[in-house]
Amino acid sequence: MKSLDELDKLRQKLQQDMQVRDNDHEVRVTVSMGTCGIAAGAREIVQAMLEELKEQGLNNVALTQTSCVGLCQHEPLLEVARGGEKTTYINVDREKAREIVRKHLVQGQVIKDWTNPEK
Amino acid sequence: MEELSQHILDIAFNSLEAGATELTISVWEDIKHNLLQFEVLDNGRGITAEDITKILDPFYTTKSFKRVGLGVPLLQEAVDRCGGNLKIKALPPGGTSVTATFPHDHLDRAPLGDITGTLITLITGHRQLNLVYRHRYNRQTFIFETRQLKTLLRGIPLHTPEVLVWLKNYLNLKIIDLRRETNEEFGRAG
C-alpha cells in the first residue's frame, strides 16, 4: 500500500471507523530515544510496535518517546502505562515488541520475564 | 551507531528536546562530486557560541539529569573516520543547523541506512512537529512535508498506526525510486 490513491481509500475507511471509535488513548507506550537507545535499536522498536498495532487494529494506544532514562545497559527500554499501572520492559527487540502488543496490550498480560535483568 | 540515519535521528531528537516544532532534514548525494551531506535544521531555542565549542566533549551536556552527551561526539567520530567535516551553527533569532559532509565512496563511511525509519520515528513520537524532508540524489529530488500529508488526511490523525505504516511504505518507495531513476552504473547505494 504505497500510492496516494491508496492513502485516499485508507482515509475514507478510517473516517468511517472514527465515527464509532472512542478516540481517547487508554494506554501509553513510551520508548526511550536517547543516544544509547537509538544505538541499541529503539528506532526499530517503534516501527515494530506500529506494524503490530496496525495488525491488531489498536488505535487507542499513544506511542510516545522520551530521552535517556539512565538505564543505558538495558536499552532498548519500553514502558507501558495503563491507568496508574506502569510496566518497564528491558532489552526489547522487534519480536519482543510485537509480543508485548499481543500479550500486554491486547490480552492485558504483563510479560514479567522481560521486566527484570537476565541473570 | 551503525548508520548515518541513526545519527540524524539522534541530532533531530536533540532539536525536539530544545523545543523545536519545525524540523527540516536534508540529504544530498552527489556521486559525480563524491559527496554525501546531511543537514538537520530546527527552530528550537538555539545554541550559544560557547556551547558549540563544548559539545564535542562527551562529558559535556546541558541536560541536568545526566552527565554525558554522546550524540555529537559520536557523529564527529563518524565524520573524522572518513575525512569529512561537521559544522554546527546557531541560527538567529532561534534554531540550530547541524551539517555533516562525507566522501560518498569512502569505505569507512557509515551507510545512510534506514532513513525512512528515522522519519517515521520522529513523526510517531511528536504530534505537533512539522517535518520537511528533502533528499537529492544527483539531479533527482524528493520532498516530503508532514503539513501536506495532514491536509490530504483531512482530519484523520497522522499518528494513526495504519497511516504511519502506509507512510513508511510510501517513503521507502520514493527514496528507492530516486536511485533507480538515475541509472547509475557505479556508486555506493546508501
From TrEMBL, chain A:
Keywords: Iron, Iron-sulfur, Metal-binding. It comes from the Bacteria. InterPro entries: Thioredoxin-like_sf (IPR036249). One of its GO terms (molecular function) is iron-sulfur cluster binding. This is NAD(P)-dependent iron-only hydrogenase iron-sulfur protein.
Automatic annotation (TrEMBL), chain B:
GO terms for biological process: phosphorelay signal transduction system. The lineage of its organism: Bacteria, Bacillati, Bacillota, Clostridia, Eubacteriales. Keywords: Kinase, Transferase, Two-component regulatory system. It catalyses: ATP + protein L-histidine = ADP + protein N-phospho-L-histidine. One of its GO terms (molecular function) is protein histidine kinase activity. This is histidine kinase. It is an enzyme of class 2 (transferase). It comes from the Bacteria. Its EC number is 2.7.13.3. PROSITE patterns: HIS_KIN. The keyword Membrane does not apply. Residues 1-106 form the Histidine kinase domain. PANTHER family: SENSOR HISTIDINE KINASE, SENSOR PROTEIN KINASE FLES. The keyword DNA-binding does not apply.
